[in-house]
Amino acid sequence: MTLENDILLALAALAVLTFALRAGGFVAVKRADPGSLFYRLLYLAPGNLFIGFAVAGIIAGGVVTAVGIIAAVLAAQIFKNEMISMAAGAAGVALTALALAG
Questions:
Q1: Which residues contact 30 (CB under 8 A, 6 or more apart)?
Q2: Suppose 32 and one of 12, 19, 25, 39 were both cysteines; which one would form an S-S bond, judging by CB atoms 3.0 to 4.6 Å apart?
Q3: What are the record keywords, sorted (predicted)?
Q4: Burial group, residue 76, by CB count within 10 angstroms (0-12, 13-18, 19+)
């Protein structure tokens, strides 16, 4: 097997594994009892993952990132528009970075 074939095989294996994990999640949700703890945990998982990623980003990015995230969340709550929210987050990061730089 050449290097290119190894890479293609690895990509194919990753694609199959990714599909299997996603399909398994859908099957688990379909078969779960809506009143069970398992179902409630599955329902909450996306929000928990988002919070985990946001907190990790804030810790890694510091004050500048925290201000950007807070600005984006506030704009999202006020305007209910993703583009405005992204612009507010970017502006918060840029202005905070400028203020701290000089």
A1: none
A2: 39
A3: Membrane, Transmembrane, Transmembrane helix
A4: middle
Alpha helices in the chain (DSSP H): 3-31, 37-79, 82-101
Length of the chain measured in residues? 102
The DSSP annotation for 14-43 comes to HHHHHHHHHHHHHHHHHHS-TTSHHHHHHH
Note whether 97 and 51 are same-domain residues: yes
The whole-number pLDDT of residue 52 equals: 86
Q: In degrees, to the nearest 5, what angle opens at C-alpha 22 toward C-alphas 80 and 5?
A: 120
**Given pLDDT bands bounded at 50, 70 and 90, which one contains residue 2?**
low
Q: Which domain, by its residues, includes 80? A: 36-101
The confidence band for 1, taking pLDDT boundaries of 50, 70 and 90, is low
CA distance 10 to 16: 10
